Amino acid sequence: MEVKAQQKKLANNFGKLLRDKFGKGPEAIHVTVSSPFVLFYICGFVSQMEQVLLEQGQDITVKTTREYLMKALTPELCGQIEAITDMDIQHFFYDWNLANQSGIIVGASPAIPDRGPEKSSAYEGKSEVHKEIIHISEQTEKVPDRIESYMLSSRALIVIREGIIVPIEKQLIALGFDEKLRVAKRQLEGEMLSKSTHFSSVLDAEIQDVFVDWDFELDKSIITFIIKPKHNM
Fold this sequence. Notes:
The chain is an alpha+beta fold and 233 residues long. It folds into two domains: 106 residues; 104 residues, Threonyl-tRNA Synthetase, Chain A, domain 2. It has seven helices and eight strands, in the order αββααββαββαααββ.
């Protein structure tokens, strides 16, 4: 099956899965298959119950609930990806922008970050993107032990960080506060990433969405930028 056909089938299947589990599907799902990654960008996705909670200022409640729901969804999603692409997805990263009613899911094979798509690892502005990521990481956590990034398509850039969890966070994780820690870190770091104007400048693109997630067990993080090249605007 060609990549475009794989992407379309994955989008259709995942849309049905969300409708079955949430009672409402998204307005659109854009899928990018670029081994060893599969990226789902979800647009227009808030259930009626979530909308009520958001109107009452319960953003954290919605985000925390989605954390648990995604854990229930990922095994089935993993099976769908393997059936359609033959990719062995073992790690999922996800985040939501409730204000934009959007979200991201990145599935990664065990290859990350040791191996990646060679062509997509080289893009204009890469070193400057890394410098800004390191600067923000230093303010919110610590300088990553390792950093790499890949331009999966003209609209999607992912940045992988390794070795960023500080001792106090490791203790919180050990005490079972990992989900609360993840929500808090997203609030802090997500805001700093979104407010930075550096990425738009060095990539010569409009930053439409920014997402961030962590795998605490692996001490890895993926930041996803959804971009719109200025020359296409």
